[in-house]
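Need Methionine-gamma-lyase's 3D structure for a figure. Predict it.
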Amino acid sequence: MKNFNPADNIQDLQYFGEFGGVNPSISDSSTYTFLSAKTMFDTFEGNMEGCYLYSRHSSPSNLYLDKALAAMEGTETANVSASGMGAITPTLLQLCGTGDHIVSSRTIYGGTYAFLKNFTPRLGIKTTFVDITKLDVVEAAITPETKVLYCETVSNPLLEVADIEGLSKIAKRHNLTLVVDNTFSPLSVSPARLGADIVIHSLTKYINGSSDTVGGVTCASREFIDSLKNVNSGASMLLGPTMDSLRSASVMKNLRTLHIRMKQHSHNAMYLAQRFEKDGLKTVYPGLESHPSHEIYKTMINPEYGFGGMMTLDIGTLAKANELMELMQAKNLGYLAVSLGFYKTLFSAPGTSTSSEIPLEEQIEMGLTDGLIRFSIGLDNNIERSYQMMRACMMELNILIS
Ligand code: PLP
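Structure prediction for Methionine-gamma-lyase:
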């Protein structure tokens, strides 16, 4: 991990606009002209560098953002998409076809879970869901048909940590592609440096950070990204989840402050997690020594960006969790909303929201309890003040007694 700093890699890029602007010009075109028909043909065939054909394939603005995100993750290149699911689904469909098998963490974002559980079986792709923290269980689930090992660095919503180096060794032994969704831990963890083959983000969350758009990215080798964009057989090109150029220009501007934001999210989340744990609440945060994967996570992170901004509290019952969230919103401590990475704290009960696609019995098995609240801790300037106000809400509802 020496000499690799994802934020410095972004900072080191230099772009100029068409008229010397300090921001790159936005390409506001869906199609591009050619001076010669031969060049158009060569571009179509993928034999022409630096020429643009049609914006579903690529556009200058998207390529700028691709480049910045590839620099951040330390991969050869990247491909941005219209949403996180618009990155995940083509990536998996490019890697797997009828008869193939995926081994996936069982604690993943509900939409990804639903795609693997309900949608891909229609195409003859099967998935086995496993406890990703148990490497022996992961390896035992691999069959001769397995093509992909899939996980989230820090899982949604249980904040389980995937040992990416350990999983990468298994993937290499069995000739599998290790795909890691790093949405919860940008900058903090660099999965490709730990052996992941493909790194995915929902840009909707921390990377854009302003809850004003959805977006996604697949960071990988040039060979894989070329295959995704192939005009004849590429899942991204053919399914069409293309990010709009105006949006990619705006995500790019927000990306530039990600390092500052991540440090503050991590600082605030660590502060609250330590306080609430001390208060006797069931608190899960990878930065706490009580987190089952704390030691391994410490070795995985780029320490200056901390342990991230996601934390869970188990309030006991859904009714109490709902009361608390409504009260915290009324006191303007944050918003009762799904998603994450906003400047305000966001909270939701995943069992009835972002993970509701997961059947109840499976939620129980994986430890997703009714009273669990998932917090995306915001950029509060005075986190001690926020803590005192949150604590007062808990006292009012008898969640905390003294
Ligand atoms: N991956 C993770 C970890 C998520 O939390 C989400 C959305 O909540 C997604 C992927 C999907 O991203 P999007 O909503 O941008 O399609």
